[in-house]
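Deliverable D5.2: sample structural annotation.
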Amino acid sequence: MEHDFTSTIRAILDKHFGTTAEMVFQKSPLLQYVNTKTKSASQGAKSRSAFANHYALYVLLHDYVNGGFLKQEKDYSKYEGAKFSDLLKKMRSMPFGNKLQNHALNNRLNHEFRKYFPDLPPPIIHVPETQRYWINENLIVIPDGREKINIAPALLEIIETYIETKQDAFNSFRKTCQELIKMSRQNSVEIEAFVRSLIQPHVDARIFEIVSFSILKQHYAGISIFWGWTRRNLTQENLTLFKTGRTNANDGGIDFVMKPLGRFFQVTETTDVKKYFLDIDKVHHYPVTFVVKTNEAPDKVKTEMESKAKKEYSVEAVVEKYMSCIEEIITIPLLLDYLTEAVDKSKVVEIFDEILLQSEVEFNFTVTKMIAKTIPAE
């Protein structure tokens, strides 16, 4: 796989290995895996910016190098292994890692690696009884004739550079937020332009999810329904959208939920019909509204999805059952229409405030601190 960040990986390999860099890249499954998992560093990538697997690999490589095994000062096969608590503490100290759990260390990295290289041993060796971990040394040592090339330092630098690239993207987002706060939210034109820039296919998936939620929450807040237990006892209530948790959470396919209708929303970047149907399976065929990060019209997405499903599944009744569970498809053009609607109603500031609020939770920064830094005291 070639993408924008691949050139950065090749440059790092050239620095470490010179004329043998291409050979190292081609012979290393672990480098190829990391290349695949750093696609989201490039602006046009549609991969979600998850760090768990990167960090699990990084902390074990870091432990390996710091332990003196790189220069064979010690025999790694006799190493007692890294402690789980030390590895997790290191992962959580890294950028965007404060909420990471144990999944990547215990199985997620190995499971995903097997999808790409089913015939190879896993990158992480783990003994559950002792809670000790090792990097699979066979995957970081590349034979080159009589010599052996260790790629651990190069892998560490690649992951560090990837993290820096993602930090730069986020810092740009935060800097823009600071500038808009500095305006005291008076200039709605700039705020609208900023929000529009965040509803694009190349935007980080977490930011897109936050912005789409903020727009939809404002859109539905202007719609009310009448409901009640009897026809004579009806209550008027505005629709309210709730975010169910952090982005990338294992939430069974529910990113937003609406009260009082009980609608489920799932945000996705893919047009893979299997992913849609998997999300429907997770909620036992409860109707789901999909918010898709694409510039295609909703009707076109649904038509293409149904066409792909008929090719994938031979039973028409199965396809019809799944398609009936798709309550609505919302894409970027519709989100932009809702944003225009909010601008017309002078509600764009409310959308921006919601983006800030959700970003506090997701990215662990505090708006009040940002205001203090950007607005000088009188």
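Annotation notes: The mean pLDDT is 84. The CA atoms of residues 27 and 287 lie 46 Å apart.
The annotation will be released with the project's public dataset once the embargo ends.
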